[in-house]
Amino acid sequence: MGNNLALIATFGVDDFTGTTLSEAVDVLKEKFHLKGEYFGNFSPPLLNARDGQLYADAMLFHLTKIKPPSAVAILGITPYDIYSDGLNFVFGVASPHYRAAVVSYARLLTPDRELFISRVRKEITHEMGHVFGLEHCTTPGCVMNFSNSLYEVDLKGENFCDRCRKKLEETLRGLGVI
Ligand SMILES: [Zn+2]
Ligand SMILES: [Zn+2]
Predict the structure, then answer these.
(1) pLDDT average, residue stretch 101-105
(2) What percentage of the chain exceeds 70 in pLDDT?
C-alpha cells in the first residue's frame, strides 16, 4: 500500500492538453488505483524526428531518465504525432521494464468532445495496461485489443476484460500499489 504515485509529463502543450491531463489523472485513479501528479512540460525530443512526426521511443527514453524512484510509473502525453520502429505512426508506446508509457492524441482529435475524451481514455488505459505487464488481448471489446486505426480504437471498450483485469490486479498487488 502507498506505492501509488504515477507522474504525468507533457511533451508540448496545446488547447487539448488540459482536458487530456485531467482524463489521465482520472484513468490512473479509476483503472490503476494510482495517484497521478503532473510532473511538468518537457521539450519534445528531436532525436530521429521526421517530417511532422516525433520518435516515440526517444520520448520513452527521456521518461525513463527523469522518472524518480518514488514514482511507480510515468506517463508522457503529447499533442505531436509519433512513430516507432517499423510503424508509420503509433497512438502510444510503453515499456513494462521501465514502467513508462507515451500517448499521442494527435490522431484522436475530433470536434466531438465526448468521442475525443473516450479515445484518450482508451489509449491511456491501453498503454498503462502494457506498463503493468498486460499484452494484447483478443477478447472482443477489451481495451487491450490491438488497434492500428481510429476505427479499431472506437470499436473497443474502455475497460479490461475479466482476465486482463485479474492479471493487472495481481501485478498492482505485487508492486504494493493496492
Ligand atoms: Zn498495445
Ligand atoms: Zn483482455
Answers:
(1) 98
(2) 99
Mean pLDDT of 3-14: 97
Q: Report the alpha-carbon distance of residue 38 to residue 24 in Å, rounded.
A: 10
In the chain, the percentage of residues whose pLDDT exceeds 90 is: 98
* Number of the ligand closest to the Cα of 126: 1
Tell me if 28 sits within 8 A of 101, measured CB to CB: no
Q: Are 177 and 4 in contact (CB under 8 A)?
A: yes
Which CATH number characterizes residue 41's domain? 3.40.390.10
Average pLDDT over residues 146-174: 97
Expressed in angstroms and rounded, the spacing between residue 107 Cα and the centre of ligand 1 is 16
Count of domains observed in the chain: 1
* Chain mean pLDDT for the chain: 97
Q: How far is the CA of 8 from the centre of ligand 2 (A)?
A: 25
* Residues with C-beta atoms within 5 A of ion ligand 2: 137, 139, 142, 144, 161, 164
Cα 13 to averaged position of ligand 2 atoms, centre (Å): 32
* Spatial separation of the C-alpha atoms in residues 98 and 65, rounded to whole Å: 10
Between the CA of 48 and the centroid of ligand 2 the distance, in Å, is 33
Amino acid (one-letter) located at 12: G
Which residue numbers are catalytic? Answer: 127
Could you list the residue range(s) of the whole structural domain that residue 11 is in? 5-174
Which ligand number lies closest to the CA of residue 159?
2
